[in-house]
Amino acid sequence: MGRIVVISTGGTIASRWQGSGFAADAQGTDVLATASVPRGVTVQVVDLFSVNSARLTTAHQLTLLRTIREVLADPGVDGIVVTHGTDTLEESAFLLDLYHDDPRPVVLTGAQRPLDAPDGDGPRNLHDALLTAASVRDRGVLVVFAGQVHAARGTVKLQTLAVDAFGDPSGAHIAKVEAGRIVARRQPERPAPLSFPEIPDALPRVDIVMHHCDGDPLLLNASVAAGAQGIVLVATGAGNATPEIVAAVASAVSRGVLVAVTTRVPAGPTAEIYTHGGAVDLAAAGAVLTRTLRAGQARIAVLAATLATTEPAERADVLRHALGGPVPALTTAPLARA
After folding, report:
1. Residues belonging to the active site
2. CATH node for 2-184
3. pLDDT digits (tens, 9 = 90+) for 164-208
């Protein structure tokens, strides 16, 4: 069926008992040894790093992005599987998808139970990910978990412990693994891939701030003062906050900070409905509403925009494109290497 490269990055699927808790320490070959490899698939393992995914940094994610690009430079590779911790898998998957410009699939998977668990879910997930990587084309970056195949965009971790951990609260999965084959349901919608970014030594700071009852602009202003180039405001409802936060957003935008608005509600889009601090006013202040993207993936979209260009208005256009809008016409150079 094909030659698949497995890139191991750690996570629960590679975790063993450390005396007081579990942590990633297994090599990719140890993880692969637990799984049944689909007939006709040959596997090459790349040990990139081994960390619990809550410790993952933007630098780790960009290293993964660059490594995937290098692996796909080999025309003999038919697909890639990335074994990854579940805590931040949704962010890494979406980052990879924003730049993925190859018909060959990149499939992320992991586990909710550690490597040596007698009822572990890692072996099945890895088998299904290998089967998916060897079977599909032109679907971008995918997440395979508990027998379901999800598009990277919109897919988030929905369960802290249950094995059916991932899904898109605002949409359905795109395929399922059934009787040793991939049964497709729909084609994921993806904007044109972004140009591969210049990666500076000093990466841009992008923060997430949540609104709540009694919420004030203190943390948003602190983020600006700390040098954030982008901020994701996790608003209430369909994207609502207060007049005071709207004023802080307007001030941040005037200083060149890219502000995106998502919601703490699990499903549904942000929308310009309410004023008096609502999404109508936040959009008028210069913030970009992120539709159905939730906080982690919204932050990745803002990060990609800050890596694309130094011009604030163009960054907003790149962000809108990452959300599904038209391809922006950039007139400024990408972020220079530090």
Report:
1. 12, 86
2. 3.40.50.1170
3. 999 999 999 999 999 999 999 999 999 999 999 988 889 999 999
